[in-house]
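hi! just following up on the protien thing from before. the input was this:
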Amino acid sequence: MAMALRCFRHLPPLLYSSSSAALRGLPQLPAGCPDPLRFGCQRGVHQVLLSRQFATKKAKGKGQSQAKVNIKAALVEDIINLEETSEDMQAVVEALKEDFSRNLSVRTSPGALDHIVVMTKEGKFPLNQLGQISQKSPQLLVVNMTSFPESTAAAMKAIRESGMNLNPEVDGTIIRVPVPKVTREHRESLAKLAKQSTNKSKEALRRVRSKSMNQVKKFKSKVSEDTIWLIEKQIQQMADSAAAEMDKLLAAKTKELLG
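and the predicted 3d structure came back as:
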């Protein structure tokens, strides 16, 4: 323990905690202290750190969260790119926001069909690049396929299979899209779709988390066990934060849909 405390006094800023000021402004390791990322004194150092962070957990009372770790990404970049992991997780959250905005709304507008992807012989294209979309009434959208008449059938299929509960009707190169009246049943159906979308997004988030964890595990034989533990905890915190953001988005969308 004496060795751990000696190294702790000179530990570089690998780990910062919002609840601990003890690590701020610490000097670099002296020549006589082993590298805390690779040598045995690190375990003792981390035991001191963790005892400071978690020993008073019970005393804090119910509802108080544990102190969080915040590893400096530059110090572990040879193991994993934490910034990239964070970006990948946030991308999943942003995709869910986009899905909610485009596909799950009780309001009807021409833009509601923009995102629908049409499979043609030339490739995939957004519907609004193939046809002119307009709104004739609150319950009727019209897609004019005059510019690409050969893609009319493909556009019909894409609209029907969009998951928006739409049954388009075709008249030459004009596609009429009746919009279902907004009923309580329709609102509840949209709310269920929002829940399903959130669950799928959480699955995607777990895949990002697992990929990052597996990357870290590859270095178990090269760095200390405590270093691996700290990085894994950081990744888990990032995943938990993204999942919590998804839950907030779902709660807000559900409230919006059900009124």
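The mean pLDDT is 78.
Helices lie at 2-9, 41-54, 57-60, 82-103, 127-130, 152-160, 184-217, 225-258.
cheers
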